[in-house]
Amino acid sequence: GQNIDQPTEMTATEGAIVQINCTYQTSGFNGLFWYQQHAGEAPTFLSYNVLDGLEEKGRFSSFLSRSKGYSYLLLKELQMKDSASYLCAVRDSNYQLIWGAGTKLIIKP
Amino acid sequence: IAGITQAPTSQILAAGRRMTLRCTQDMRHNAMYWYRQDLGLGLRLIHYSNTAGTTGKGEVPDGYSVSRANTDDFPLTLASAVPSQTSVYFCASSDEGETGELFFGEGSRLTVL
Prior knowledge:
The complex is a heterodimer.
Chain A: E1 3-5, E2 9-13, E3 18-25, E4 32-37, E5 44-49, E6 53-57, E7 60-65, E8 70-75, E9 84-91, E10 97-99, E11 103-108
Chain B: E1 4-7, E2 10-13, E3 19-25, E4 31-37, E5 44-49, E6 56-57, E7 64-66, E8 76-78, E9 87-94, E10 102-104, E11 108-112
Parallel strand pairs in B: 2-11
Antiparallel strand pairs in B: 1-3, 3-8, 4-5, 4-9, 5-6, 7-8, 9-10, 9-11
């Protein structure tokens, strides 16, 4: 079956760096997405990786290794507003999105 | 720009009742989706539509139906609600750009008693 694994919860300190990992086993691969979801709100798009390597976008970066079925989202200079759930999703060979359960990130002052 | 509008925002419903969740987008996206989100689980696709006039079943379609009469509207109907359909429902759309990222509505929280 298809599976996306990411940690359930992580805690980090304001101003620090945190890495959220995502491993996947899917039928084919046509891109990996990271979304941010604040409590009670809709998910919003953060990043997209389809080739191996690092994509940087401001304080957020996303890395992909297709051979390892692995991605991470790196958040730098953490701010309290970064407290949210981070969802990893993979688009499979049928162009359907397979979603992880999300990682709840708690930022402490 | 409104993006995607869902209604109602929240609803409490008696089991056995019929309920339609409305979804409208103004981005002229061809593809639209309905997901449900439950604690501890990833978003699960209920139904989707690649273009007006066509629909398809997702991962968890049982008990739900959709229609796509035009590009903008994609309503989700629960013919006879059951408590297991208590969830947060998100409507989404995607464009045909390089990423095909999803744009989500604000969600509809449904409680079936």
